[in-house]
Amino acid sequence: MSTKELSLPVIGMTCVNCANTITRTLKRTAGVTDALVNYASERAVITFDPGLLKEDQLVQRIRDAGYDVPQAAVDLPITGMTCTNCANTVQRALRKVTGVVEANVNYASEKASVVYIPGVANRQDLIQAVEKAGYGVVQTTGDEALEDAEAAAREAEIADQTRKFWVGVTFAAPLFLFSMARDLNLLGMWAHGEWVHWLMLALATPVQFYVGGDYYRRRLEVHPQRLGQHGCAGGDGVFGCVLLQPGDPDRQPVRLAWPGRSRVFRDRGRHHHADQAW
Predict the structure, then answer these.
(1) DSSP readout, the chain?
(2) pTM
């Protein structure tokens, strides 16, 4: 059985008997192997089985005994999410941080609402968890307001997606038209030459690895063994999937996914500016 040690700040104690009461309550909890509450430092050191207990359950046990554990809440603007699966990935990463009591990520608003225990976790721990999962957190520098920093980050993201969209169109459109014309026998035999295949590869490569680079990079960082499974492959690798197998009916529906994603980013930018104007 693997165990985990957690140190929680406790408030509301007035004497040593209070500390003993909390200690007994924690030790009677299924999954707790050891517990020690120090009245002087006002902290509870708990050894427990993370497979049976979560941090929020331990906090609730202390509250049931008539005491409390201080908590803090923070909203983190998240960048890089392209679908609800991305939001779920960030949410799972945040919930694994020691000291996080609750974490919810909203894909529509691109924000993570986190309740954590100060002294056990901090904002930097949360940011590192998000970045390790392959996403980003908007951070302010100096006296810059959070809203201004978020707006700047959104604008940069929109610009990046727009640039990649047009790069994709520039290389994908001629490749698509040429390959369709060749398949329909509208071109001569020269279109079946070996050098044509290398030309098509050259046109497809920027689309696959520049336009779709975010997808591969994120999957390799988070789930290298699951590259190409789940997640949002249709969002970043859309052109590569379509062009490599144009006759596969399972690939056809994702042709509109990437332009739709670009529109989502633009709409979010408009909504953000509308909210500021209001």
Answers:
(1) ---EEEEEE-B---SHHHHHHHHHHHHTSTTEEEEEEETTTTEEEEEE-TTT--HHHHHHHHHHTT-B---EEEEEEEES--SHHHHHHHHHHHHTSTTEEEEEEETTTTEEEEEE-BTTB-HHHHHHHHHHTT-EE----TT--HHHHHHHHHHHHHHHHHHHHHHHHHHHHHHHHHHHHHHTT-S-GGGGSHHHHHHHHHHHHHIIIIITHHHHHHHHHH-GGGTTSSTTHHHHSHHHHHHH-TT-TTTGGGGGHHHHHHHHHHHHHHHHHHHHH-
(2) 0.56
